[in-house]
Design brief:
Four copies of one chain form a homotetramer.
Chain A lengths: L3 H30 L11 H28 L9 E2 L4 E2 L2 H25 L7 H18 L7 H26 L4 H25 L12 H39 L5 H16 L2
Antiparallel strand pairs in A: 1-2
Helix pairs in contact in A: 1-6, 1-7, 2-3, 3-4, 4-5, 5-6, 5-7, 6-7
Chain lengths: 277, 277, 277, 277
C-alpha cells in the first residue's frame, strides 16, 4: 500500500461513508422533527432498518473485496504468512491492511445481524464500529517504526481522527441517537478520508517535486493543514445537513399531512419494540 | 506573534470573554432560582437568545479581525503560503494563529446559526466551541519544536487550560446548563487569559531584566505561578458570581412580583420549544 | 513464572472466566427478554444470587491457591521477603504475582459479602473487580524493566486488554446490567486468556525454534496477531451468546407459560429489593 | 519538607481525613437505608449540614496553619519570594507546599460558603475538592526534576492516588451521593496518607540503614508495596463501613420507631430544598 493509490482508495471510501452518514442522520433528524407533518412515510422505522441492512451489506462486501485485494493483488502474500526458507514474515504490510479490513467486515456483519434479527442488543453495532476504528488506529500506531519524520507525523495526525472516531462511536453506545455525536462522527470520517488523500499527495506526489520528509517546517505546515481539513469537513457536514433539512421540509410542505392519523399507530409499534435493549 | 503585544492581545480577549461568561451564567442562574419572584422579565428565554446572538456576532467579528490582522498587519503573509522561489513556507506562525482564529470564527458562526434559526441541534454550539479550543491546543502542541526550556514549559502549562476547557465544553454537550461546568469553563477562560499575559511578561519582559530561559528553578517557579493564576481565576469567578446574585436578588425585591401570573404562560412556551434537540 | 506453564496457567483461568461470564450474561439477557414466556423459573433473582455466590467462592478459592502456589511451589519465597544476609529482595517476581492474586481474591471476597449480605452497595462488586484488573495492569506496567524488545512488547499489548477491562468494569459501576459492556468485558477476558497463551508460545516456545526477541518484524507480526486474538474473542463471544439465546428460547417454547401469573409477584419483590443501592 | 516529619505530617492529615470521611459516608448511608426505622433523628439533613460546616471549618483552619508553618517555621521564606541580591528564588519547595495548602484552604472555604448560604450550587464543593487534588498532583508532577530513581518513583506512585482522587471527586459532581464513589475516595485518601508515611520511611529512614535510591529491585519492591497499601486501605474502609453500619442498626433497634410520622414532613422539606442546584 506504499503508493498514492494505496492511500487514495481508503480515502475515497471514508469520504463516501462520511457523506452517506451525514445524509442518513440528517434525513432521520429532519423526519423526526417534522413528525407532525406526515414525514413518517419518508423514514419509518422499518425503512430505517432496511437502509441499515443495505448499508451493512455494502460495507461487508467492500471489506471482503479489500481483504482479497490485499492478499491477491499484484505482489500480495496470497495467504502465505511466513517464509520458512527465508526465515522472514511475508509482506506484513499487506497482512496488516487486510486485518484492518477484517475488523470493518466484522463490524458490518455484526450490524447486519443486529438489524435483520433481534438476537443481539441494538447498541452493539456502535461498539463493534468503535472496536473497528480502535483496531485501525492500534495497527497504525505500531506501524510507524523507522520511518522519516514527516511520514510518521502525517500518520500520527491520522490517529487523532481514527481514535477520536472510536471514542465517539463508543459514546454512542450510551447516547444512541444523539445527533451531535452522529454529526461529529460524520465529520471525523470525512476528515479521515480527505487526510488519506493528503497523505498520498505528501508521501507519493503524483506530479511535481518531492517533499523533504525531514524538514521541520513541513511538519508545521502539515499540522496546520490537518486543521484546515477538519474545518472543511465541518463545513461540508454543515452544508449537507442544511441541504437535507431544506429538501425534507419543502417536500413535506407539498404533501398533505392529513394521513397522519393513519400512520401514527402503525409507526409507533416498531419504534418501541426496537428500543428495547 | 513573538512579542509582548502578541500575547497580551489574545490574553485580553480571553479575560473579557471569561468575565462576560461569568456574568451571563450567573445572571441566568440567579433568575432561574428566583423565578417565583417575577425575575422572568430579566432573563426570559427570548432575551437569552438575543444575548447569545449578540455574543456570537461579536465573537465572529473579532475572529475575522484577528484573521485579517494576522494576514495583513506589518509583516503578514498576505495570503501567500509558499514562496516557490525561496522554497520555503511563508510565515507559518501567522498562518497558524490565523487558523486558530478561524476555528473560533467557525464556532461563533455556528452559534449564530443555531440561535437565530432552528436548523441545527442546540447542543452543537458547545461542540464547536470544544473543537475550537481543541484546535487551539492542538496547534500549540506542535508549535514548540526547538524552543528553549522555559518557553516550552509556559506554553505546555497553557495547554492544561486549553485542553481542560475543550473537555469541559464537550461535557456540556451532555450536561447543558450544569452551572458547575459553566463556572469551571469561565475559570479556565480567565486562567487562559491571565496566563497569556504571564507568558508575555516571561518571554518578552517589557522592562526589567530578561529571564534565564534555561534555568530549572525558573521552571519550578513558573509552575507554581500557574497554580496562583488558577486560584485567582477561581476567586474572580466566585466574587463575580456572588455580586451578580446579590444584584439580581436586591432588584427583584424592589419590584412587585404580582405580574408573574401573566408572564408565566408566555415564558414557558419558548422554553419547552427550545429544549427539543 | 518465567516459563511456558507460568503463562498458560493464568491464561487458562481467564479463558474459563471469559467463557463462563459470556454464558452467564447471555443466559440472564435471554431470560430477561423472554419474561413473558415464563422464563423466570430459569433465572429468578434468587437463583442469580446463588450463581454469583458460587462464582465468587470459586474465584476466592482459586485466588488463595494461586497465592499459596506462588509462595510455596518449588523455589517460592515461603513468605520471606528480604534476605538480610545477602541484602537483596527475595524472589520479587513471585511476590508480585501473589499480589495480583491477592487483589482478585479481595474482589471475590467482596463480591461474596455483597451477594450474601446486604451490608455493602451492589455496585461495589464491579468497582473491586475494576481495582483488581487495574492492579494487575499496574504491576505488569512496572514489571518490564530491562527486558528484550519483543518481551516488553507482548506484555504491553496485554496491558490494552487489562486496562481496557478495568475501564469497562468501572463503567459498569454506573451502567450496571448494560449487556454491551458485559459482553465487551467477556471479550476482553477471553482476549487476555488467549494472549497469555500466546506470550507463553512466543517467549518460551515448547518446541520448535526460538523467536528472535529483538527483531522488529516480529514486533509487527505480534501486533497484528493481537488483533487476530481480539477478532477471535469477539467471534467466540458472539457464537456463545447466540447459542445460549437459542437454547433458552427453544426450551421455553416447550414449557407452558401458564404459571407466569404465579411466578411474577414472587419474583418482583427480590428484584426491587436488590436494586436499592 | 525534605525530612521524615515533612512526609509524616501530611500523611497523618490524609489518614485522619480518610477515616473521618469513611465514618461520615457510612453513617449517612446507614441512616438513609434505615429511614423507616426512625433513624432520621441520627442524621437529618440539617445535622448533615452542620457536620459539613464543622468539617470545612476544621479543614480551613489546618490549611491556614499549614500555609503559615511552611512560611514561618525554621528556615521558611517568610513571604519573601525572590532574592534580588543573590538572583535566585527563595525556598521554592516551601512555597510550593504552601500553594498546595492554599488550594485545600480554598476548597474548604468554598465548602463552608456552600453549606452555610445557598449562594453557590451544591455540586461545587466536589469540584473545588477535585481542583485541590489536581493542583496537588500537578505541583508534585513538576517537582521531581533531577532526583534519584527511587525518589522519583515513590512520588510518581503517589500521583496515582492523587490524580485518581481528583478524578473521583470530579465524577461526584455528576453522581453526587453515589456511595461507591464516596468509598473509593475514602480509600484513595487513606492510600495517600499511608503512602506519605511510606515515602518518609524510604527516603529518610528514621533508624536502620539507608535505602539504595538507584537500585532497580528497590523500585520493583516499592511498586508492589504500593499495591499492598491500596489493599490495606480497601480493607480499612470496608471494616469501618461495616462497623458503622452495625452500630447504627443496633442503636436503631433499641429505639422505638413510632415518632417517624412526626419526623418525616420536617425532614423532607430541607432535603428537597437542598437538592435544587
Amino acid at each position: 500500500m506504499g503508493s498514492f493509490k494505496g492511500h487514495a482508495l481508503p480515502g475515497s471510501f471514508f469520504l463516501v461513508a462520511g457523506l452517506w452518514w451525514t445524509v442518513k442522520f440528517s434525513l432521520w433528524r429532519a423526519t423526526r422533527r417534522n413528525k407532525n407533518m406526515g414525514s413518517t412515510r419518508l423514514a419509518s422505522r422499518s425503512s430505517q432498518r432496511r437502509l441499515e441492512v443495505i448499508e451493512s451489506a455494502a460495507a461487508l462486501f467492500f471489506s471482503l473485496v479489500g481483504m482479497l485485494a490485499e492478499q491477491f493483488a499484484a505482489g500480495g502474500p496470497r495467504f502465505r504468512l511466513y517464509d520458512a526458507a527465508g526465515k522472514h514474515w511475508e509482506l506484513l504490510m499487506n497482512w496488516q491492511h487486510a486485518t484492518m479490513y477484517l475488523f470493518f467486515g466484522l463490524a458490518a456483519a455484526a450490524s447486519l445481524v443486529i438489524h435483520t434479527t433481534d438476537a443481539a442488543p441494538l447498541a452493539l453495532d456502535r461498539l463493534v464500529l468503535a472496536v473497528a476504528f480502535f483496531n485501525e488506529g492500534f495497527i497504525f500506531f505500531y506501524h510507524l517504526h523507522g520511518r522519516s519524520l514527516l511520514d510518521v507525523h502525517v500518520h500520527q495526525l491520522l490517529l487523532y481522527a481514527v481514535f477520536g472516531e472510536a471514542l465517539v462511536a463508543f459514546l454512542e453506545v450510551f447516547h444512541r441517537g444523539n445527533v451531535v455525536l452522529e454529526l461529529l462522527r460524520c465529520t471525523l470520517t470525512l476528515l479521515q478520508g480527505s487526510w488519506f488523500w493528503q497523505i498520498g499527495f505528501v508521501l507519493y506526489p503524483p506530479r511535481g517535486p518531492e517533499w523533504d520528509l525531514d524538514d521541520h517546517s513541513n511538519v508545521m505546515f502539515v499540522t496546520m493543514c490537518f486543521s484546515w481539513h477538519l474545518a472543511s469537513a465541518m463545513l461540508a457536514v454543515s452544508a449537507l445537513h442544511w441541504a437535507v433539512s431544506c429538501v425534507v421540509r419543502s417536500r413535506l410542505r407539498r404533501t398533505p399531512p392529513m394521513e397522519m392519523g393513519l400512520l401514527k399507530p402503525r409507526d409507533q409499534d416498531p419504534e418501541s419494540e426496537d428500543e428495547v435493549l
